[in-house]
Each structure stands twice: as structure tokens, then as C-alpha cells.
Amino acid sequence: MSNRLLHTKVSKRKPLKHFPTKKDGHNGDMQIVTVNGKGTYLCIKSQGEWKISDKFNPRNKFDTHIFDEITTRKIKSSGNLVATFKSTSESVGALIGKTFTSESNVTQPILEVGDGINLGVISSHESTALFLKSGGSSTSSILLQSSGNITNTISGTSSYSVLYNNSGTAAGKFLINNRNTDGGNAMLELAVNHTDSDAYIRYKYAETVDGGSAANDIQWVHGFDGNDSDIFNFMYLGADSSTALTPSTATVGSTQFSIATSGNIWSRGDLTVNGADITIGTDSDGTDRAVTFAHSTLKTIMGIDDSADAFVINTDAAFDGTLANNSLSIDASHNVIIAGNLAVNGDNITCDGTLTIDVDGDIELNADGGNVNIKDGVLTHFQFDCDNTRFRIHDDDNGLDHFTITVAAEGATTLATVDADTTAGHLILDADGSLTLDAGDGRFLAKNAGTEFSPANSSYAGMILGYTCIGLNEAPATYNLITSYVVPTDEFSVAFVAPPSGNVEIFIQVGWDAGSSNTGDCFAGLSTANATSGYSATVSYHEKELFDGMSRGALRVITHRWTITGLTAGTAYERWAGFKTSNIGGTPHLQWGGNGSGENPNFIMMATALPTTITT
Q1: Residue 484 has what pLDDT?
Q2: In contact, 51 and 20? CB cutoff 8 Å
């Protein structure tokens, strides 16, 4: 026996510091070995091989056994809980999903914990953590597989954490994936059992790491507040806050978005939809569909007013059943009703059919550019020129031919026609009713190419203002004169309105018979009173002698004209003709009328307008 070994019967040498080699010692020898950093072992040589025992434990840990390797099929505790070791063939693909079904089955050690009846438990000792670690390769994994539920029960306020330590873009992923292609769902469920508890998910960016203070956490939370479970909230808490945000801590955070059990949605900020459609309501009647824009003074509602069967926008915060009272309405016939003004910042308003503008009040066209044009295609037919205060109508065939109404200072207005080729631009006034010429200053001018040819400012001169004809197709009548002026009949008059000049010419015609003695002369004058009231001379110098004697019993036609001046323009007047004779011998008389051939001339009295300026 080598003197390095301790024979159990005779040797008292100290333990070796290394394990014996195969050639050392004899069968039946035992040797104590203490290896630095590994522990103390008992070595026994049998059948030419050294057998090494488990490592011996310190005195205070005599109930614990430390082994480098144990080969066994089953370990059983005093409480009958069993850990079974077996080698079996398992399909890895069947355990972790259909993606891996291409992997072949392998025979490998399997650790089963439990006795098959009671709950199997893997636990760390005392207050230490339980650490499960896969192989060192980046492709190695820890797989949990169960035909039933996998339940993690945590007591106290501890958390269930999944920690990643990798800067890759695919790191930090928590995946729930039902990979069965024949059906099945994937679900993440958060449940609480107390009515005042919150169920929520928190998203958090911590400015500090490795257990430092989280005073500057930025947090997002979505879930429901147990105190108000009818509302599902999305909340945000910015930096500079050490409070953990929950749906119940609304005072420390800000609700950004919420959904009520009624389906109502509330958002603190803007809502952007990148898709093509937003649908509000269903295709049924009986309910309004609306979007309301809140504001302190201009709260506005927009949507479908079901009672009016119209799309409505109203700044009074509610629909008005009378469409004209809403800010803007579009009815089922596509009619647009606007309660206020319409501002168009573009250049065109087009209509494929007939455009009708029908208002109960006024229509105002306001063009800051100066022109309002009405066109047929590209040609202008009507032009309102606001800068030149002019309205122009263009010919349909030649736009250079036109009619223009121009208003100048003080309202002076000119009607003008232009023929670009010839002088055929005639102006025709054709009234299907009255045609009235009314000059405020009484001046009427007739011109030729700009030169007045009428009496100055008196183109009305020569106009018959009044006309009387007595005896037309009537039985002949006579009136015997006396030596004082009388109006033979109330009919011997002419009525007229004084022209702007205030000057009138009055004409008379009547038959005169000097009588059988032929001794009386004939006189005539103008009266302001009729026959019933009695003759009343206008002025004495209008009383004239018309005939001084004539053949006995002879008939003469007397005509005479009076020039009347100083009348008030626009005032109505009536003048009567009065007559007398110087001698009534032989019965001088007037005679007029006839309804047969060869009878007396009619009595005629006529008033004619004279110009402003007359020579006297």
C-alpha cells in the first residue's frame, strides 16, 4: 500500500488534499480527502476503482445533504410528497405549439413533483427566492405546459414581474398566442372581486433604473375606477410625480379619454381619424344623430334632426324644428337653408341645373373688385360697374354693341346706346302702360347729337295742355249776347295744369252773328268763374274786341289767342270764355254745333304750353 494512503486498520495519517488515482491503494482501503473549495469526501477502493461519497456537511447543517450528482428514480419526503425522475420520450412540438411540430421526439429526463393525488409544489427555502434558469444559449427557453390552468398565486402586495435586460427592438414582448389553426381564442383578463377595486393596466416610463427613486415617472393608465365602474378611462400623468397612477387617483392625473357603458365617448384633446369613414347611429328613424362642440358662448350642435328630416348645424346648442332658425340646414331634397351670411373665399359657385335665388327680404351683391358680371359661357352680357356707377347690357352677337345706364354726381343719369359699327344703336321706349317724363326742375331738352334744338329747356313747348270741343255732333245752339260780359254756358272752359314755364296760350273758336241790325260789336274775355257763378275777369287786359261791325245777319267764325304768364308750374287751372256786345239791336248772338251738314262750327277752347322764354 502506498504510504500516501490511510489503511483503515493501521493508518493514522492526515486526509489527502486531492483524490487518489486508480493505481493508488488496495481494494477495501478508505481515504478521507479534503479538496480546497469543494469540501470533504470519503473515498473507498473496490474492485480496482475508487468510489467517492457525497460531500460531508458542517455540524450545523447535518440535516442537509449536498451532492454533486444523484442517480435515482424517486425521492420521497416524510410527508409522502414525491419527486420522481424518469426518462421518457416527449414531443416538444406538441408541448409548445404547432410551429415546432417538425422537431422529433427525444428521450430525456423528466422531473415530476407530487404524488399524483395532492398538489405538487416547487418551493425555495425560507425567505430566499426561487430561481429557474434555462441554458446559456440565446435560443434556450423556459417552457411551462399544462393541460389545465397555470395559476400564479401571490400574497401580500408583491408583484408578478417579467424583467428583460436587452436593448434589442424585439425585447420586452409579452405574448399570448393561441397557435391552434383550427380555432380557439387568446385573452388577457383583469378581474377584481371587490366593488370598489380598480381593474387597469399601467404603462410607465421611469426616468430612474435599478431601484432608484421614481419621482419623475411618466404614466399612462387605462381601466375602470371601482367607484365609478360605468366609465372606462384612459389617463395620463406627466413627469415630476412620485404617485402611482390608478383610475381612482384622478386628482393626480388627467383623464384623456373615456368610454361609458352607454357607449358615450369623451376626449380631452383632439380626435384624429385617418380612416375613410365615421358612422354615427344606425340606419333607422326616430332618433337624432349629433356631434356637439362645447363652448362658453357658441356651443354648437351638428347632425341629423330626425323630426325635421334634415342635416342641421346650429350654434344655439340644440336643434330647432324650424329649419330657417338653424344656422345651416340641408333637407332631404338637398335644399340648403342658411340663417346667417354665406362667405365664399373661392372664385366660383357652380350649378349643374337651374340656380334660383329666392329671398323674403333683399339681395345684396357686394364686389370690392368693382364689377359684377353676368355671363353666358365666357361672354359678358350684363355688367354692373360699381367703380363707374354704370350698368351695361351687351349685345349677344357683338359684345361691343351695348346699352349703358350711367349715374354721375348728384344722381345725374344718362341712358346711352353704342353701335360699334354704324349709327343704328336706336333707343326705343315701349311701355306696356304709362310713360311718364317727370323733371324735378321742369327742364325738358330735345337735342340732336348733343345740340339742343328745342326752346331752351322747354321741349314741351307746343304741348296741348287742355282741349274743349262743344257742339260736336250735337244740335245747333245759340246764345244772345248782352252789353256786359257773361259766360254763355258752364261748358265754355278749358282745364289744364300749368307747365314748368308757367306760360300758357289759350285759344278759342266760336260762331258769331251780328244780328239783323248789325250794330253790335263782339267782345271776349277770360273768366275765373263759370256761367253758374257768373263771369269774373282774370285781368282787364285779357278782355278784347274781336269784331267791329259786319254785314247784317252774316255769320263769322271768331278765333282768338290769349298769352297767360306767371302761372305756378304743376298747379291745376280752369278758365272760361266770356262774351258781350256793344249793342243788342238786331239780337247779336253766338252760335255753335251741328249734327248735320252745313251747320255751325263747334266751340273750341284749348290751352297750349309755351316755352320758358317768350318775347313780349
Answers
A1: 96
A2: no
